[in-house]
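Hi P.,

Sorry for the delay on this. The queue was packed all week, but I finally got your sequence through. Input first:
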Amino acid sequence: MAGAAGCSPAEDTSPAVANLQVSLSRPKLALGSPVEVTYKITVAPNAPNLGTRRVFAHFLDADEELMWTDDHDPPTPSTGWKPGQVIEYTRTMFAPSYPYVGAAQVVAGLYSPGTNERLKLSNEDRGDRSYQVATFELLPQTENIFVIFKDGWHPAEVVAEGAGRTEWQWTKKDATLAFRNPKRDVTLFLQVDNPVSGPNAATQLTIQTGNQVLATVPLSATEAPVRKLPITAAQLGTGDMIELRFTADKTFVPALEPAMKSGDPRELGVRVFHAFVQ
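Then the structure:
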Protein backbone atom coordinates (compact mmCIF):
# COMPACT_ATOMS: atom_id res chain seq x y z
CA MET A 1 0.00 0.00 0.00
CA ALA A 2 1.12 3.51 -0.72
CA GLY A 3 1.34 6.26 1.89
CA ALA A 4 -1.99 7.27 3.39
CA ALA A 5 -2.00 10.97 2.53
CA GLY A 6 -3.06 12.13 -0.93
CA CYS A 7 -5.06 14.59 -2.99
CA SER A 8 -8.76 15.02 -2.14
CA PRO A 9 -11.05 13.44 -4.75
CA ALA A 10 -14.55 14.60 -5.64
CA GLU A 11 -17.14 14.17 -2.88
CA ASP A 12 -17.56 10.50 -2.09
CA THR A 13 -21.31 9.87 -1.93
CA SER A 14 -21.26 6.07 -1.95
CA PRO A 15 -22.64 4.37 1.18
CA ALA A 16 -20.24 3.32 3.94
CA VAL A 17 -19.85 -0.45 4.25
CA ALA A 18 -18.22 -0.61 7.69
CA ASN A 19 -16.73 1.28 10.62
CA LEU A 20 -13.15 0.74 11.80
CA GLN A 21 -11.80 1.47 15.27
CA VAL A 22 -8.18 0.99 16.33
CA SER A 23 -6.79 1.31 19.86
CA LEU A 24 -3.29 0.94 21.29
CA SER A 25 -2.66 -0.64 24.69
CA ARG A 26 -0.49 2.32 25.70
CA PRO A 27 -0.78 6.01 24.76
CA LYS A 28 3.01 6.44 25.04
CA LEU A 29 5.26 4.01 23.22
CA ALA A 30 9.05 3.82 23.43
CA LEU A 31 10.84 3.07 20.18
CA GLY A 32 11.67 -0.62 19.89
CA SER A 33 9.06 -1.66 22.46
CA PRO A 34 5.98 -3.89 22.00
CA VAL A 35 2.40 -2.65 21.90
CA GLU A 36 -0.92 -4.42 21.51
CA VAL A 37 -3.06 -2.98 18.73
CA THR A 38 -6.77 -3.83 18.80
CA TYR A 39 -8.81 -3.62 15.60
CA LYS A 40 -12.62 -3.51 15.66
CA ILE A 41 -14.53 -3.65 12.39
CA THR A 42 -18.31 -3.21 12.45
CA VAL A 43 -19.95 -4.18 9.17
CA ALA A 44 -22.79 -1.86 8.11
CA PRO A 45 -26.34 -3.32 8.40
CA ASN A 46 -26.89 -2.96 4.65
CA ALA A 47 -23.38 -3.87 3.47
CA PRO A 48 -23.03 -6.11 0.41
CA ASN A 49 -20.59 -9.00 0.29
CA LEU A 50 -17.19 -7.29 0.53
CA GLY A 51 -15.11 -9.95 -1.17
CA THR A 52 -11.46 -10.30 -0.23
CA ARG A 53 -10.23 -7.27 1.71
CA ARG A 54 -7.15 -6.45 3.78
CA VAL A 55 -6.65 -3.91 6.55
CA PHE A 56 -4.09 -1.19 6.04
CA ALA A 57 -2.74 0.59 9.11
CA HIS A 58 -0.17 3.34 8.58
CA PHE A 59 1.78 4.90 11.44
CA LEU A 60 2.57 8.55 10.67
CA ASP A 61 4.67 11.22 12.37
CA ALA A 62 3.47 14.76 13.09
CA ASP A 63 4.24 15.80 9.49
CA GLU A 64 2.19 12.84 8.21
CA GLU A 65 5.32 11.09 6.96
CA LEU A 66 4.92 7.31 6.87
CA MET A 67 7.07 5.60 9.53
CA TRP A 68 5.88 1.99 9.36
CA THR A 69 2.84 -0.11 8.50
CA ASP A 70 0.80 -3.00 9.88
CA ASP A 71 -1.07 -4.04 6.74
CA HIS A 72 -2.59 -7.50 7.25
CA ASP A 73 -5.37 -9.97 6.54
CA PRO A 74 -8.05 -9.99 9.24
CA PRO A 75 -8.14 -13.32 11.14
CA THR A 76 -11.79 -13.73 10.06
CA PRO A 77 -11.72 -13.61 6.23
CA SER A 78 -13.76 -10.72 4.85
CA THR A 79 -15.44 -13.00 2.30
CA GLY A 80 -17.59 -14.38 5.13
CA TRP A 81 -18.48 -11.13 6.90
CA LYS A 82 -22.22 -10.59 7.44
CA PRO A 83 -24.17 -7.30 7.69
CA GLY A 84 -24.01 -6.01 11.27
CA GLN A 85 -21.18 -8.38 12.26
CA VAL A 86 -18.41 -7.15 14.58
CA ILE A 87 -14.90 -8.46 13.96
CA GLU A 88 -12.49 -7.64 16.81
CA TYR A 89 -8.95 -8.89 17.34
CA THR A 90 -5.60 -7.83 18.81
CA ARG A 91 -2.14 -7.95 17.24
CA THR A 92 1.13 -7.49 19.12
CA MET A 93 3.72 -5.49 17.23
CA PHE A 94 6.99 -3.71 17.93
CA ALA A 95 7.62 -0.05 17.23
CA PRO A 96 10.67 0.02 14.93
CA SER A 97 13.78 1.96 15.93
CA TYR A 98 12.72 4.91 13.77
CA PRO A 99 14.54 8.28 13.93
CA TYR A 100 11.61 10.23 15.39
CA VAL A 101 10.05 11.01 18.78
CA GLY A 102 6.89 12.99 19.43
CA ALA A 103 3.21 12.98 18.46
CA ALA A 104 2.11 10.26 16.05
CA GLN A 105 -1.08 8.90 14.58
CA VAL A 106 -2.55 5.80 12.98
CA VAL A 107 -4.57 6.05 9.77
CA ALA A 108 -6.27 2.93 8.53
CA GLY A 109 -8.89 1.44 6.25
CA LEU A 110 -9.82 -1.55 4.12
CA TYR A 111 -8.62 -2.27 0.59
CA SER A 112 -8.65 -4.86 -2.17
CA PRO A 113 -5.31 -6.68 -2.44
CA GLY A 114 -5.83 -7.10 -6.18
CA THR A 115 -6.59 -3.50 -7.19
CA ASN A 116 -5.66 -1.45 -4.08
CA GLU A 117 -9.22 -0.01 -4.21
CA ARG A 118 -10.22 1.29 -0.78
CA LEU A 119 -13.64 0.82 0.80
CA LYS A 120 -15.83 3.66 2.03
CA LEU A 121 -16.10 3.59 5.83
CA SER A 122 -18.31 5.58 8.19
CA ASN A 123 -15.30 7.14 9.95
CA GLU A 124 -14.31 10.73 9.12
CA ASP A 125 -12.60 10.52 5.72
CA ARG A 126 -9.21 12.20 5.28
CA GLY A 127 -9.98 12.54 1.57
CA ASP A 128 -8.62 9.28 0.15
CA ARG A 129 -10.69 6.69 2.01
CA SER A 130 -8.13 6.56 4.79
CA TYR A 131 -9.24 7.37 8.32
CA GLN A 132 -7.43 8.64 11.41
CA VAL A 133 -8.22 6.04 14.04
CA ALA A 134 -5.71 6.59 16.87
CA THR A 135 -3.08 8.96 18.22
CA PHE A 136 -0.11 8.20 20.46
CA GLU A 137 3.30 9.52 21.49
CA LEU A 138 6.64 7.99 20.55
CA LEU A 139 9.30 8.11 23.28
CA PRO A 140 13.08 7.60 22.99
CA GLN A 141 14.45 4.07 23.12
CA THR A 142 16.26 4.96 26.35
CA GLU A 143 12.92 4.44 28.16
CA ASN A 144 13.36 0.67 27.69
CA ILE A 145 15.28 -1.91 29.74
CA PHE A 146 18.55 -2.29 27.85
CA VAL A 147 19.10 -5.89 26.73
CA ILE A 148 22.60 -7.11 25.82
CA PHE A 149 22.93 -9.86 23.21
CA LYS A 150 25.93 -11.41 24.88
CA ASP A 151 27.37 -14.80 23.81
CA GLY A 152 26.18 -17.22 21.14
CA TRP A 153 24.62 -14.79 18.64
CA HIS A 154 25.38 -14.40 14.96
CA PRO A 155 25.39 -10.84 13.50
CA ALA A 156 22.02 -9.23 12.80
CA GLU A 157 20.48 -9.65 9.35
CA VAL A 158 18.12 -7.08 7.81
CA VAL A 159 15.67 -7.17 4.91
CA ALA A 160 13.89 -3.99 3.74
CA GLU A 161 10.13 -4.40 3.31
CA GLY A 162 8.21 -1.46 1.89
CA ALA A 163 8.02 1.28 4.49
CA GLY A 164 9.75 -0.79 7.13
CA ARG A 165 12.30 -3.50 7.57
CA THR A 166 12.62 -6.91 9.19
CA GLU A 167 15.63 -7.69 11.37
CA TRP A 168 16.65 -10.91 13.10
CA GLN A 169 19.57 -12.72 14.70
CA TRP A 170 20.33 -16.44 14.61
CA THR A 171 21.53 -18.16 17.75
CA LYS A 172 24.06 -20.93 17.97
CA LYS A 173 23.22 -23.95 20.15
CA ASP A 174 23.28 -21.69 23.23
CA ALA A 175 22.92 -17.92 23.40
CA THR A 176 22.78 -15.48 26.32
CA LEU A 177 20.75 -12.33 26.92
CA ALA A 178 21.78 -10.05 29.78
CA PHE A 179 20.05 -7.08 31.42
CA ARG A 180 20.15 -5.17 34.68
CA ASN A 181 17.87 -6.73 37.29
CA PRO A 182 14.84 -4.45 37.81
CA LYS A 183 14.05 -6.35 41.08
CA ARG A 184 10.39 -6.71 40.10
CA ASP A 185 8.18 -8.91 37.92
CA VAL A 186 8.81 -8.52 34.19
CA THR A 187 7.51 -9.92 30.91
CA LEU A 188 9.78 -11.26 28.20
CA PHE A 189 8.31 -10.52 24.77
CA LEU A 190 9.81 -13.03 22.39
CA GLN A 191 9.30 -13.49 18.66
CA VAL A 192 11.20 -16.52 17.45
CA ASP A 193 10.96 -19.25 14.81
CA ASN A 194 12.98 -21.72 12.77
CA PRO A 195 12.09 -21.37 9.06
CA VAL A 196 13.91 -24.60 8.19
CA SER A 197 12.45 -28.10 8.36
CA GLY A 198 14.38 -31.34 8.49
CA PRO A 199 15.89 -33.78 10.99
CA ASN A 200 18.49 -31.28 12.21
CA ALA A 201 16.16 -28.30 12.55
CA ALA A 202 15.33 -27.05 16.05
CA THR A 203 11.77 -27.74 17.19
CA GLN A 204 11.87 -26.04 20.59
CA LEU A 205 13.76 -23.42 22.56
CA THR A 206 14.43 -23.67 26.30
CA ILE A 207 14.88 -20.45 28.30
CA GLN A 208 16.48 -20.56 31.72
CA THR A 209 18.34 -18.48 34.25
CA GLY A 210 20.90 -20.37 36.29
CA ASN A 211 19.38 -23.84 36.79
CA GLN A 212 15.78 -22.56 36.58
CA VAL A 213 13.86 -23.39 33.41
CA LEU A 214 11.57 -20.42 32.79
CA ALA A 215 9.87 -21.61 29.59
CA THR A 216 10.03 -24.11 26.75
CA VAL A 217 8.89 -22.53 23.49
CA PRO A 218 7.75 -24.66 20.52
CA LEU A 219 9.07 -23.49 17.16
CA SER A 220 7.30 -23.22 13.83
CA ALA A 221 8.64 -23.05 10.29
CA THR A 222 5.57 -21.12 9.06
CA GLU A 223 4.85 -18.48 11.70
CA ALA A 224 6.57 -16.47 14.41
CA PRO A 225 3.97 -15.31 16.93
CA VAL A 226 4.95 -12.81 19.61
CA ARG A 227 4.96 -14.68 22.91
CA LYS A 228 4.61 -13.05 26.33
CA LEU A 229 6.53 -14.96 28.99
CA PRO A 230 6.09 -13.75 32.59
CA ILE A 231 9.15 -13.82 34.86
CA THR A 232 8.71 -13.12 38.57
CA ALA A 233 11.04 -11.09 40.74
CA ALA A 234 11.76 -14.27 42.72
CA GLN A 235 12.89 -16.03 39.54
CA LEU A 236 15.18 -13.11 38.72
CA GLY A 237 16.85 -13.35 42.13
CA THR A 238 18.84 -10.64 43.87
CA GLY A 239 21.86 -10.21 41.60
CA ASP A 240 22.47 -6.91 39.86
CA MET A 241 22.61 -8.48 36.38
CA ILE A 242 20.42 -11.21 34.91
CA GLU A 243 21.48 -13.68 32.23
CA LEU A 244 18.87 -15.65 30.29
CA ARG A 245 20.22 -18.67 28.43
CA PHE A 246 18.49 -19.71 25.22
CA THR A 247 19.13 -23.35 24.24
CA ALA A 248 17.94 -24.87 20.96
CA ASP A 249 17.22 -28.60 21.05
CA LYS A 250 19.01 -29.05 17.69
CA THR A 251 21.25 -27.07 15.35
CA PHE A 252 22.08 -27.30 11.67
CA VAL A 253 24.76 -26.03 9.30
CA PRO A 254 23.27 -24.89 5.95
CA ALA A 255 26.43 -25.87 4.04
CA LEU A 256 26.03 -29.45 5.27
CA GLU A 257 22.37 -29.71 4.20
CA PRO A 258 22.40 -30.73 0.48
CA ALA A 259 18.77 -29.69 -0.03
CA MET A 260 19.55 -26.11 1.01
CA LYS A 261 22.25 -25.64 -1.66
CA SER A 262 23.98 -23.13 0.61
CA GLY A 263 27.59 -22.35 1.37
CA ASP A 264 26.72 -20.91 4.79
CA PRO A 265 29.08 -22.59 7.32
CA ARG A 266 27.41 -21.24 10.46
CA GLU A 267 25.86 -23.39 13.16
CA LEU A 268 22.25 -22.17 13.43
CA GLY A 269 19.82 -22.77 16.26
CA VAL A 270 16.78 -20.48 16.23
CA ARG A 271 15.93 -17.19 14.53
CA VAL A 272 15.03 -14.38 16.94
CA PHE A 273 13.19 -11.32 15.65
CA HIS A 274 12.55 -9.63 19.00
CA ALA A 275 13.60 -10.25 22.59
CA PHE A 276 12.32 -7.46 24.83
CA VAL A 277 12.05 -7.21 28.61
CA GLN A 278 9.22 -5.03 29.96
